[in-house]
Amino acid sequence: MGSRSQAQAECGEKRVASDAFAEVKSTSPVISESQSPTQPQSPNSVTSDGGLLAKLQVLACFLVLMNTWGIVNTFGAYQSFYEVDLLRSHSPSAISWIGSFQAFLLFLVSVLTGPIFDAGHTPALLGVGSFLVILGTMMTSLVKTYYQAFLAQAVCIGLGAGMMFVPSIAIVSTYFDKDRAFAIGVGASGSSFGGIIYPTIFHELQPRIGFGWATRVIGLIALVTLVIANLVTRQRVVPATRRKLFDASALREPPFIFCTLGLCFGFIGLYNPFFYITTFALSKTGASATLAFYFVPIVNAASVFGRLAPTALADRVGTLNTLIPCTIICGALVLAWAAVHSTGALLAFALLYGFFSGSFVSLPPSTLVSLSPDLSKVGTRIGMSFGVSSLGVLVGSPVGGALINLHTGQFVRMQVFCAVTMFVACAMLVIARVAKSGLVVMAKA
User: Fold this and answer.
1) pLDDT per residue over 166-211, tens digit each?
2) Which intervals carry biased composition (Low complexity) (predicted)?
3) How far apart are CA 333 and CA 320, in angstroms?
4) Alpha carbons 395 and 108: distance in angstroms, whole number
5) pLDDT tens-place string over residues 385-405
6) What is the DSSP string of 367-415?
7) Is 241 strand, coil or helix?
8) What is residue 294's three-state secondary structure?
9) Residue among 119, 198, 111 at smallest CA distance from 163
10) What is the dihedral of CA 159, 164, 166, 172, to 10 degrees?
11) What is the pTM of this model?
12) 12 burial class (0-12, 13-18, 19+ CB within 10 angstroms)?
């Protein structure tokens, strides 16, 4: 009788798991680990690799990333405008602190939002985060001075984006198993999409309706898309016990440690081309102001494909096996950037760098998931890793800006700096891969 009851319970559980839409209509859309009639559920036991609800989480992730990292990727357009207009009395390095601090807060706040996500408070994180991003964007439209831009664009938007980033990625990881990296890559491509449409909107509307209204249009788009994301998001797994802010066991795992160091070094150099490619085009290639501006959307457009193709490959050969070559190619491309002197060559660089740098943004979450033996702690671990990576994001672009000499038009020191950090990142990732799978070349890692 006990075996029959257990079999009936398992059969009923499978019928519920196979109908994703029924979960939306249930009174409690969140599955708790304590609900299983036989044993506590882990995130691995509830993955579905498909269904309407799973696809809606990818859509929500896409929209959230569009309004978090998409806005961060847009700062290159604001950097160019601030340098020649609103904040022209400040150096490029000082202006870049606004964008780098925005990305720094996005990562740093992830340290807190990871455990809060694990505790099941995703609706609050998305709601408050959406409000802050929209408020910060609207306040940016009113700025007149540097400190106002810093508070609105760096602090307010950075805090809001940090509240939403980890939950949106972590939720997708609990709905997919076999195709997890690709699903996360589709969601992460929202950041590239935002990095295409938002700079383009700003560039086209700013001369016609002014800086303020061009920024408000971006805020209105963020409002609509974030409302949709809040409505469709459903957290699927809530651990039965309250999670700690810090998972000390991760510090005893060399793959996690070296992967985190690799991500930190990589993010030091990663965003310098996004911030300074327009200035480089104007100074070194003789491109028109309009053409120079569009190099930022071009890099982001190429990044869309870089977030999809490598992630599809990663599901088959392993995330680290895919991330490592993409990282070393980024370093080589930045070195090659130093030899660029024409718009055609710069276009080739923008397309290639956009493609391979896209993998460095989309693959780390699924890489950290693959390195986590207990997926119920994935939010905490992603938060810990990205908290360390935030230091790289914070210092990278301002240091790069300080290495640029606009009076002589010399960018080579910034380019070498970026390349070296990417090569160091690659070395750390290789050590993480060896620590996880040994020296077996064909091992999936």
Assistant:
1) 788 878 877 877 777 678 778 878 888 898 899 899 988 999 999 9
2) 32-46
3) 20
4) 13
5) 878 888 898 888 889 888 887
6) HHHHT-S-GGGHHHHHHHHHHHHHHHHHHHHHHHHHH-BTTTTB-HHHH
7) coil
8) coil
9) 111
10) -170
11) 0.76
12) exposed
